What does this fold into?
Amino acid sequence: MAEKIVNSIFGVDPAMYSQLKNQQNYADALAVGNQYAVPGTMMNPSLGPLYTQAAQQGQLIGGGVGTLLGAQDPELQKITAIKQLSTQFDLTSPTGMREFSRALQQIAPNESMMAAKRADEMTTSALGRQKTQLDITGTEDKQAKQKILEAEIAKLPDNATPEQWLSVYRRFGSPDQQAAAIQRSVDAQANREAKFDLAKEKAALKAESIATQQKAMATDTLESSTEGLALVQNLKKDVNNWTVGLGGYTSWVPMTSSKKFASDLDTLKSRLTLAAMNAAKAQSRTGATGFGALNSKELKVLQDNIVALDTGLSPSDFQKKLDEVNQYFIKLQNKATTTLGGTPSVTVSSANAENDPLGLRK
It folds into this structure.
């Protein structure tokens, strides 16, 4: 093995060198003889073959005598030494080849550099094979881990939380997969927070819008209820036998107190109807939680009271109806004042529940 490796590096062994050397000697002797065989020279051509034979024999005899006297060809001596040294090292490994190179530095510098170059090539080749094997092993390991990760992910429930997903990636995922899972978790949390903030903002805007609507309705209701209270007080002063009861039937007669009373009563009914409409509007916009909201039963009672303001009633009965309407306007006025940030200045008078169907005095 070592001889083949040495031959592959330096190209020749001692036996081959000796053979090549003898061939060269024969060639040189032949050249000497041919000099006598060239026409037109000073030499005798008939002596050419004789000189060729003599030169060949002389080369052989000279070589043999030189060997007997201890003389050696330097090149052959170097090649022989290289061959002998090669048997002392493991030339199949980069380390052995490098040690062989250092051993050659004194006797064969050029061959030492060639051996060092071969050691570098062997090291590079070994590293390449090692890297290839590591790549194959790494790929197989990565594929095996990926299968385990996929199997663990398949075990997660459909409603798995981000924390459960992240736990699986931390245990079975690669660093890149873990980083990606953490980033997805962070992004999901940021998305949830953004949605929550958006919902809060929408709720705040909705609340602000409702508050603005309530204040606007409170302003309108405060005006209509204040005007309604003034109308009730004016009517109460004019309730008598000339304006209601039998006197109420003369409201068609021009320039009579009954005519004027009937006109003021129509105005009061309009204000009362407007207040009822505002209450119904507040109910639809705020879900019966804002000021002035009435349920269906309360609205029906209010409408009945509007109809009940009949000038055909006796003065005492008509006064009672006006008192009920008056209490309703007070309630609306108080709620509107509170909504606008004020303090009610008028309180609803106490009465029995049977005389307070709208709960005005609560």
Confidence is low (pLDDT under 50) at residues 65-69, 287-293, 350-362. The first helix runs from residue 2 to 10. The CA atoms of residues 223 and 333 lie 8 Å apart. The two ends are 117 Å apart (CA to CA).
